[in-house]
Amino acid sequence: MTTTVDLAHYFDYLCKARETLPGWVAGQPVEAYTRSFPFGLGSIRATLVHTAAGQWGYTERLAGQDFLPAHNPFSEDRYRELRPLMVAWAGETPRTRQVLADLGNGSRRIEYIYRAADRPRRIRATAGGIAAQLFCHEVHHRAQVMAMLRHLGVEAQDLDYNNLMYERLE
To answer: First-to-last CA distance in the chain?
Structure first.
């Protein structure tokens, strides 16, 4: 028996959950966006920029493009404020969604050179594994941002898949 998984649908969930974060962050004093925290990537801004950059990179790999960190459009220098970051990140949504919809064989092997570390490394993965990393990476970092927001007194919660995507019946 073959099961088909609609990865684009799960990506829609990430995007829907992502819509809530800017409101929580924007409701705080502007310095909360860059406030230093002793966990995660150190600030809400750094974490959100990193997450957007990760989505871009994983999409590049899935699309068969050579990922070069210098070509990544997401950096803290470029996106110092929340709104422009969220607009640019949303601009990546159609391409990522399409790449996931067209993924095909999830066991397809993908090999690439990882150049962001101290020395280049050859990486072998599957298309399905990279897609899973794209999803898990965002959920992981979204949880860090939610924890930072909780430290600021924001009741950041209820972004679970079932809360946002299940149909509620009478």
So the answer is: 33
